[in-house]
UniProtKB/TrEMBL annotation:
This is GlcNAc-PI de-N-acetylase. One of its GO terms (biological process) is glycoside metabolic process. Keywords: Zinc. The keyword Metal-binding does not apply. One of its GO terms (molecular function) is hydrolase activity, acting on carbon-nitrogen (but not peptide) bonds, in linear amides. The keyword Translocase does not apply. InterPro entries: GlcNAc_PI_deacetylase-related, LmbE-like_dom_sf.
Length: 274
């Protein structure tokens, strides 16, 4: 079960792993805390109801990745301001939700699906979005309630991210408010990463998943990440997005794993490797 805050988060962070597992015959379930209705988008999409648009995009992405099910917890998108945005009628902002109540909703799905593995985010929520931070809290609590044996934190190798931002600054003009230094505490430190999952064989599915989130390719005062990455030629896309990273807390020191299922009870040691 892959737990994400908003539609399109799965495309950027875990789509390759999802496609890989589905291709191996595993049942893959995508759970979204919100419909992402406060994301940036052009006005014509907002007039249609951005939440409904992004729900449809999530289902399209899930079909591409081979998911068996998509579920929404039903919370409102909190936005990315200093405080949760006002909720739509009948829905509470996810960042302000009671952790126990939200965890109970997720735990019910974990129990129903008899999930062996749950993905969440690192404690910083990647880049600090309040809904992402809440995914970390709620996901761990739900896994304890449901007895889910393995929790992986989807993240990005911070060392590679900072290196990439430095290189990009030579050829790309970031908007004036962009603070590259803020990423020094974002995502996961290399020393924390326990799983480095190769997904180059699934690059077409990952790129198609990203393309399914058309509403997030436009809007705002600068080019969106999805649009910029989606235009990369195939070889460059495989190089930049051919690996997905995870952290499993409490795992003994050892080689970085290449199989997301390597530490499931009964999994063989053959999945280990640098």
């Amino acid at each position: 079960m892959f737990f994400h805050a908003h539609p399109d988060d799965e495309a950027l962070l875990t789509a390759g792993t999802m496609a890989r597992l589905a291709g191996q015959g595993h049942r893959v379930v995508l759970v979204l805390a919100t419909a992402g209705e406060r994301g940036l988008a052009p006005e014509d999409l907002r007039e249609r109801g951005l939440g409904a648009v992004r729900r449809a995009e999530a289902h399209a992405s899930a079909r591409i990745l081979g998911c068996s099910r998509v579920a929404f917890l039903g919370y409102a998108d909190s936005g990315h301001g200093p405080a949760p945005a006002p909720a739509r009628a009948g829905a509470e902002p996810f960042a302000a939700a009671d952790v126990d109540e939200a965890a109970a909703r997720l735990a019910a799905l974990l129990t129903e699906e008899r999930a062996d593995l749950l993905t969440v985010y690192d404690p910083a929520g990647g880049y600090g979005h309040p809904d992402h931070v809440q995914v970390h809290r709620v996901g761990y609590r739900a896994a304890r309630l449901a007895g889910t044996p393995v929790v992986l934190e989807a993240t990005v190798d911070r060392t590679l991210l900072l290196r990439g931002l430095r290189a990009a600054s030579w050829i790309h003009r970031f908007p004036p408010h962009f603070d590259r230094d803020s990423f020094r505490q974002a995502y996961g430190a290399r020393a924390e990463i326990t799983h480095r999952v190769p997904v180059r064989r699934h690059w077409r599915a990952k790129r198609a998943s990203m393309s399914a989130h058309l509403s997030q390719a436009r809007g705002g005062d600068s080019e969106r990440t999805l649009a910029a990455l989606g235009r990369l030629p195939g070889p460059a896309f495989r190089q930049v997005l051919g690996t997905e990273w995870y952290i499993q807390r409490g795992l003994p020191a050892g080689p970085v794993l290449r199989d997301p299922l390597a530490t499931l009870p009964g999994a063989g040691a053959a999945a280990r490797g640098r």
